[in-house]
Structures are given as structure tokens and as C-alpha cells.
């Protein structure tokens, strides 16, 4: 394990995933935070905006146009889609690693990226060397990566939920895989929007993106790779009246071979060495509050009749679904203990 401190920059320090990175990295033993950007609040001490960080972070926000990001060892982009790809090439040329929490480096097919994100991809060369950042599925490639496309929040639940079955060929693709997913409102970010006003989003619940959500192609591409087969996948996200947390319920049809297998034991074995994936006891019904504020993802399996399996997966969308997973990726890239900065217990109540 390396002991030297690395210099870390965060572009987009005023957003929800940005401040979550600050919360986790402030106590990371191998990290020295050196630049935290904001366009509108440059010059403001970070702790003035986020008093919870008083005494832990002494820096002020700096303007992303002038911040000395090339002096960092790694830069996190906790920004809207399109920002990281405009700066990645220059940072890589300065030997700085890049971890993007947005979608710039998640989809290898630039035509699909352009279709869903309505912008051309400005650096396909960088994209081609980017690694999709789910450590439990892709750890070896992450070790040597210079650019990480940190996954979307919904994809992390679906992919970790399904991976053990797909790796064994236990899903019968004659029926579609269905994922019915629910997110807390922080998933939409901190920017002001009518849909996330208290009076609009509390005491109510709604589906959205039913005709198509940009995480569908992201999940589909990864499922296809894991299954080595084309698959039908139905995905419906929902907005629910809580601040943080995500629960995905996933329905699959099992192959005949899978029906003879102890699937709970298969999951326990697949994730036995994974600190951040917890396979719950038989019959468990995981709740989002059991992972709140932590990098933990919990999975429960429920057989339904002889042919179907229902998976229930929970995570904190801002931690394992975003900033925590990004820190986990950083730890792997720099040879640190994967748990550094991430041994945070869930908050209760
Ligand atoms: N929220 C979630 O649960 C998840 C979010 N993500 C992704 O992570 C990224 C960040 O999300 P989130 O933190 O929720 O978003 P927010 O809207 O809360 O924050 C966005 C941040 O980006 C900064 N910013 C905006 N435009 C630019 C720009 N052109 N150049 C530099 N900085 C800019 C803003 O700061 P300022 O205006 O002060 O410069 C702000 O700090 C998004 O791509 C999102 O899709 C991924 C997984 C989960
Ligand atoms: C509740 C809510 O609005 N969630 C966001 C997903 C956040 C996320 O992970 O999305 P990115 O792919 O943009 O990084 C959404 O559905 O747009």
C-alpha cells in the first residue's frame, strides 16, 4: 500500500456529489485536497457554504478556469455531462488522472452517447482508453486506468444485482429483464428545478423517463458485455419523496440450470470478498435507510414461483451510486486500501 499523499482536485465542489466527495476525502489518510472549484462562488471558503465541513476543509472554492488542476495527481469531475471531456486531454497530457462522475466516459459507442446526451463527443481517443468504474466487476482494468467513467447511480444497482447470474449464464433471455428503480430527490442534483421543489416532490411519487432514460443504453451496454448476448431490458425509474437513497427491484426469468442451484449461496460466494456489497440473509427486505451515508450496497434475493427471481438492491445514490464509488476507484488506481476514506457507517435513523 502506498503511503505518500496524493493531490486531489474536484471540479464542481458545490453540487451534491461534489460535497459528498469532500465529506469522504476530508478524512482520507492519503489525500491532500488542493483545488475545489465553483464558477459562481470562487473565493468563498468551502466551510462557509457547507458548515458541516468547518474544521475539516480550510480551502476556498476556486474558479475552474484558473484553478491549478494540472498540479493534481487526480481530478474528479462532479459536473454536468460534457465538462470532463472538454478538459480530460489536457489533464492527461499533464499526467493527471481523471474520474468523471458524469457520463462522458461511460458509453464506448459515441453515436449512442450523442443520441442520448445531445452533444458530440469531443475526445473519442480518450474515451477509448476509459474504464467503466464498477470495482466489483472491473477491478483489474481500474488498477491501470488513467480515465474512469464512473457509472450512473441506477446502473450500479442493476449491474451489481445481476452480475452473478449473468456470469454463470443463469438468466433465460426469452423474457426481458425488468428493472423498476426508485431514487431520492438528491439524484437530480442541487441546481434549482421546479420538479425538485419541496412542494412538488414531497408527499408524492412518480415514474419518469418511461419512454426512454439515458441510463437504459448504459445498463444495456454493460449487461450485453457481461452476458455476451443481446438482451431485452426494460427500465422504469421513479422519483420518491426522500432525500437520498435508491431501491431497484429487478425481475428475471431463470434458466433450467439455475433452478437447480442455490442462488443465495452463489451470490454470497461471488461477493464474499467485497467490502461494499452485502448479500442479505434469505427473506430479507433491504431498506434504503440501512445504507444511508455509506458506500454499502445491499442485495436480497427472492424466488417467485419456479421460474422467476426477484432481486432487491439498495444503495445511497450519492455514495455507492456516485462519490463513494468514485473514491473506491481512486483507491484502486493509486494502490491504496480500497476501503480508505470509505469506512463510514450508515446513518440511523
Ligand atoms: N446526484 C446523484 O445522485 C448522481 C449524480 N451523478 C452525476 O454527477 C454529476 C454531478 O451531479 P450532482 O452533484 O448531482 O450535480 P449538481 O447539479 O448538484 O452539481 C453540479 C456541479 O457542477 C458545477 N458546474 C456546473 N456546470 C459547470 C461547468 N460548465 N464547468 C464547471 N463546473 C460546473 C456546479 O458548480 P458551480 O455552478 O458552482 O460552478 C456544481 O458544483 C452529474 O453529471 C450527475 O449526472 C452521478 C450519479 C449520481
Ligand atoms: C432522481 C434523478 O433525477 N436522477 C437522475 C439520475 C442521476 C444520475 O446518476 O445520473 P447521471 O447519468 O446523470 O450521472 C436522473 O434520472 O436524471
Task: Specify the biggest β-sheet.
Answer: 7 strands, mixed
Strand order of the largest sheet: 8-9-7-10-13-12-11
Q: How many β-strand stretches?
A: 13
Number of helices: 12
Provide the low-confidence segments as ranges.
Answer: none
Derived from helix and strand composition plus strand pairing, the structural class reads alpha/beta
Order of helices and strands: EHEHEHEHHEHEHEHEHEEHHEEEH
Q: Which ligands does the model contain, each kind named once?
A: NADPH dihydro-nicotinamide-adenine-dinucleotide phosphate, N-acetyl-L-glutamyl 5-phosphate
Helix coverage percent of residues? 25-40%
Domains counted in the coordinates: how many? 2
Describe the structure.
- With 349 residues, the protein is an alpha/beta fold.
- It is 31% helix and 19% strand.
- It has helices spanning 16-25, 46-49, 84-93, 110-117, 124-129, 135-143, 153-168, 198-201, 215-227, 256-259, 263-270, 319-333; strands spanning 6-11, 31-36, 74-77, 97-100, 131-132, 147-149, 177-183, 206-207, 233-239, 246-253, 277-279, 297-304, 308-315.
- The mean pLDDT is 97.
- Residues 11-18, 38-41, 64, 78-81, 83, 101-102, 152-153, 186-187, 189-191, 317-318, 321-322 line the site of NADPH dihydro-nicotinamide-adenine-dinucleotide phosphate.
- Its EC number is 1.2.1.38.
Amino acid at each position: 500500500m502506498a503511503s505518500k499523499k496524493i493531490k486531489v482536485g474536484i471540479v464542481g465542489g458545490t453540487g451534491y456529489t461534489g460535497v459528498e466527495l469532500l465529506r469522504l476525502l476530508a478524512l482520507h489518510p492519503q489525500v491532500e485536497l488542493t483545488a475545489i472549484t465553483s464558477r459562481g462562488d470562487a473565493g468563498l471558503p468551502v466551510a462557509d457554504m457547507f458548515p458541516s465541513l468547518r474544521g475539516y476543509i480550510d480551502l476556498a472554492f476556486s474558479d475552474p478556469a484558473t484553478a491549478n488542476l494540472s498540479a493534481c495527481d487526480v481530478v474528479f469531475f462532479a459536473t454536468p455531462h460534457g465538462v470532463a471531456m472538454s478538459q480530460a486531454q489536457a489533464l492527461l497530457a499533464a499526467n493527471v488522472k481523471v474520474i468523471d462522475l458524469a457520463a462522458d466516459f461511460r458509453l464506448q459507442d459515441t453515436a449512442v452517447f450523442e443520441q442520448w446526451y445531445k452533444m458530440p463527443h469531443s475526445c473519442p481517443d480518450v474515451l477509448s482508453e476509459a474504464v467503466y468504474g464498477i470495482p466489483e466487476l472491473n477491478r483489474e482494468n481500474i488498477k491501470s486506468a488513467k480515465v474512469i467513467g464512473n457509472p450512473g447511480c441506477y446502473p450500479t444497482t442493476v449491474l451489481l444485482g445481476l452480475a452473478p447470474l449473468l456470469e454463470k449464464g443463469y438468466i433465460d433471455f426469452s423474457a426481458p429483464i425488468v428493472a423498476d428503480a426508485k431514487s431520492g430527490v438528491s439524484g437530480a442534483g442541487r441546481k434549482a428545478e421546479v420538479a425538485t421543489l419541496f412542494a412538488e416532490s414531497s408527499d408524492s411519487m412518480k415514474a419518469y423517463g418511461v419512454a426512454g432514460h439515458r441510463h437504459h443504453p448504459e445498463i444495456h451496454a454493460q449487461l450485453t458485455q457481461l452476458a455476451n448476448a443481446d438482451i431485452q431490458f426494460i427500465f422504469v425509474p421513479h422519483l420518491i419523496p426522500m432525500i437520498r437513497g435508491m431501491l431497484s427491484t429487478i425481475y428475471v426469468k431463470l434458466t433450467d440450470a439455475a433452478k437447480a442451484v442455490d442462488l443465495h449461496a452463489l451470490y454470497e460466494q461471488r461477493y464474499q470478498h467485497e467490502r461494499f456489497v452485502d448479500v442479505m440473509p434469505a427473506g430479507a427486505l433491504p431498506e434504503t435507510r440501512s445504507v444511508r451515508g455509506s458506500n454499502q450496497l445491499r442485495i436480497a434475493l427472492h424466488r417467485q414461483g419456479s421460474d422467476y427471481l426477484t432481486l432487491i438492491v439498495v444503495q445511497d445514490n450519492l455514495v455507492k451510486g456516485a462519490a463513494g464509488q468514485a473514491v473506491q476507484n481512486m483507491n484502486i488506481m493509486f494502490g491504496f486500501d480500497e476501503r480508505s476514506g470509505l469506512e463510514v457507517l450508515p446513518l440511523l435513523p
